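Hi support team,

I'm opening this ticket because the web form for multi-chain structure prediction keeps timing out on my end. I have pasted the exact lines I submitted so you can reproduce it. The total is 503 residues across two entries, so I didn't expect it to be a heavy job. Is there a limit I'm missing, or should I split the entries? Thanks in advance, R.K.
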Amino acid sequence: MDPVKASAPKKMRRTLLGYLPVESPIHAFHPIIKTFFLLIISVYPLLIDNPEWNIVGIVAMFAIFFLSRVQLSIIKFYTTIMLNIFWIIFIAYTFFGGYTPGYHVIARWGPILISWENIAWAITVYLKMFFAILVIIYFLSVSRERDVILGLRWVRLPYVIAYMIGLAFRSIGLSLIDFNTIREAEKARALDLKALPLTHKIKKFGLYIVPLVALALRRTEEVSNALDSRGFKFTGLRGYRRTDYLLSKYRFQSKDAAALGLMLAILAVLTYFRYFTPLLTGQSSALLRLLGSWMGVY
Amino acid sequence: MAPLTKSASVWEVLEGEIRKPGTVHIAVFALLIGVGAVAGAFGSIAVPLGYGVTGFWPGVAVQAVGGIWFGMWGVLAGALFPFISNSLAGAPLYVSLAYFPANFIQGFLPAWVFRAFKVDPRLKSAKDWAHFIWSAVIVNNFLGALWAVTVLQWFKLITVSSVPLFFSGWVIGNGVPALVFGIILLKALSPLVIRHRSFCKGWWA
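Hello R.K., no limit was hit. The queue was backed up. Here is the completed structure from your submission:
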């Protein structure tokens, strides 16, 4: 291998949540596939209660992350959020899960009864959430604003709406730049954010909204004038079809159809199993039975 | 800039004044989504209670104030930006989708009250303050929380017994920032906004 090429930095593409290598296989698909992935795969965890099947989904998602070459730092960023959700679900279900006669009580702390049924439900819900969150993280990790806009244009949404949504996505980036500018200005005035207690940090953060809104208002003028000067109209072009340059660069190929077909086929299978068999229910879970017997319930 | 006489309410369309939705409203809609998404995402990550519910959500101030200033543009922006902020904070897509009515009402109620009762967004009188507090701090967040916990239960993500925890988390987590930042935003920027061409006296312009 050419040593110069080997040491050259990897080419990356900016996504909604970070960067993705240019050679990621996901780029080979039509951008609409990413949106369909989000819309279809997000339904899977809603249909599955059985923890084993959700674990299968989670493992599959990690494999897809790996195959798509998504940076691990993105998943690491969500570790705290995942842990937070775990604690919230655990506390909400075990301590505030309620009690129905027939529940197997494992521990009793004053008025609080901790039952096996509530713990089992906490495990079930957490794994469902974990799977669903991985789907959204994946979408944000591999998609660009352009992909979302292209997707909207592909489904023939009016240009004005697609443009507005595109502008909204871009304005997030602008707001983040404004946010950092405000923070830098504060630091330049010797504000040590690290030294502030958490409550002050949160309050301080909230107060950033005022300059952010003020800057957004000022930018409104600029954007609006730019749109007017380009002859942008609410009604779009009457009697003419707008040329979709970007859309013309992508073709919905057989591999896109295959990917979409596979996602829909799995959805159909899961829907069948959900409503016509007990396979995806928590009651059919071997893992929960094993845990239950370990806790002396079964 | 439209001149304002002392006697005229800010909501009153003056003689000869033509108000039509324009590109400025498209721009304000998009930029409000940007500001709201940033404010909402940081809030959701800072004090998370789970499922996009947070103990302190400054995004609600953008919802309430956006609706008051920019009518339906602000209300829609306020209902849409949580999709982005919740997703960035790790809420599943369908939970974010299900929150849409809650986020819509949180922006719509103050927007409607300010227009229906001719409340001055500069908060000049006791009446203005009272209407702001009940519509943009208490009732809107109460209704939003009611819908949110119903949805979370519908998805079987929370139990009946944990409803008070999430309900109070939503009401307090939204109510406090709506009160503090809403007032600051209205007092600081309303005099400017009502003279801006993006200000909506009606619902769309």
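A quick check on our side: DSSP finds 14 helices and four strands in chain A. Let us know if the file doesn't open in your viewer.
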